[in-house]
Amino acid sequence: TTFQVTCSAVETDEGISVLLCFEDITPLEQVGQMRRDFVANVSHELRSPLTALLGFIETLQGPARNDPAATDRFLSTMQNEASRMERLVRDLLSLSRVEAQERVRPTKPIDLVAILRTVIHANAPLLKDAGVTCTLEVDMDNLELPGDADQLQQVFTNLIENAVKYGGSNNAIRMSIHVEDDHPALRGPCAIVTVADQGPGIDPVHIPRLTERFYRIDNHRSREMGGTGLGLAIVKHVVSRHRGRLKIQSESGQGSQFQVILPRELPLDAS
Ligand code: ADP
């Protein structure tokens, strides 16, 4: 606990009165610390591809200048490093946009079934390259609820990308939507989208921290797979903007299941 102490003294006819004021500034300190950690993390994440790029540029200007094969190899690595920086900046912008809008709950009706079909269609090349199948179980043609279509597309894209990245070989992704009339946590009707993979799963000790920015179970694997460490943080903020819930269930060796639970009722002020 951090206290800020302010001291003031007043001189009166009866002598000097001293007023000591103790204020608990722990929450402020924590926010400050989180901000500092975030800046340190971003700087670190940007610095490694930048250092690599500078190194390659130097080599291309010097020893590799007249070696076409080496030039091709270096240029392709440089492209990968630059793409990594681009993905990081893109995810940072998405995260800051959702955070800025977090108090503004979306009110426009969107069709959740259409969104999932669009996301699966858009990710078909990724699934094909990875040799992973993705099925969608849904027993309705459409399902309307108040939402932000672009942000929800990003949520399901991130979950599918993760299921592919961490699902290992012989993976099959199952997606489903079902509705509940009275969800206990949301106290009303909701839609539940499940994205389940058959990968090696997640040790439960990591689950509570997965939505923290830059939290990765295996840094090397995440980077190798092109991860920025921000995907689930974006998912969490979008779901929270929709006043929904994110549920993660997994056990090592059992595959992972991510559930996005979204309220189906319009907020009162919009009806
Ligand atoms: P990243 O860009 O590293 O994928 P995310 O925020 O999307 O960042 O995910 C955070 C971490 O959660 C990942 O680095 C990975 O360790 C773990 N993770 C996410 N999805 C899965 C999954 N489907 N199976 C196993 N681990 C996962």
UniProtKB/TrEMBL annotation:
Domain of life assignment: Bacteria
Keyword Transport listed: no
Domain Histidine kinase: 41-266
Keywords: ATP-binding, Kinase, Nucleotide-binding, Phosphoprotein, Transferase, Two-component regulatory system
Annotated EC: 2.7.13.3
A Gene Ontology molecular function term of the record: ATP binding
Cell cycle listed as a keyword: no
Catalytic activity: ATP + protein L-histidine = ADP + protein N-phospho-L-histidine
Protein name listed in UniProt: histidine kinase
